């Protein structure tokens, strides 16, 4: 029984991101791909200030993603200890219990 449960959880955790991406793509195509586009809550019909999703917002999001990737790559490659804790640099010793571990 345990093996079947683990296989099901693994399968769900593996497939769920692909399902979410697929639903998101269908949503974007349905919302922005249609000739009419989305509506507003007041019901006014005005096409004067509409901005197309592609290329404006797509390029803006890709530039932001590229900037984030550059910053994160810099942190990982050149300053990997920046976001870590100083206790991670202490050499492990099986004979000494850390001070913050105390009985209740």
What does the main sheet amount to? none
Secondary structure: number of strands: 0
Tally of contiguous helical segments:
2
The best one-word shape is elongated
Task: Work out the strand percent.
Answer: under 5%
Which labels suit this protein?
single chain; 104 residues; mainly alpha; 55% helix
Protein model, in words:
The structure is a single chain. Among the domains are: 1-34; 53-86. It has helices at 2-32, 53-78. The longest helix has 31 residues, at 2-32. The chain has 2 helices and no strands. Helix content is 55%, strand content 0%.
Summarize the structure.
By secondary structure, this protein is mostly helical. It has helices at 2-32, 53-78.
């Amino acid at each position: 029984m345990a093996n079947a449960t683990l296989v099901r959880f693994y399968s769900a955790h593996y497939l769920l991101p692909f399902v979410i991406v697929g639903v998101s793509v269908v949503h974007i195509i349905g919302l922005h791909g249609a000739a009419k586009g989305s509506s507003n809550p007041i019901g006014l019909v005005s096409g004067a200030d509409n901005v197309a999703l592609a290329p404006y917002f797509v390029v803006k999001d890709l530039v932001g993603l590229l900037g984030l990737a550059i910053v994160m790559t810099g942190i990982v490659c050149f300053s990997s200890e920046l976001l870590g804790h100083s206790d991670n640099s202490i050499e492990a010793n099986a004979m000494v219990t850390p001070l913050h571990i105390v009985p209740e």
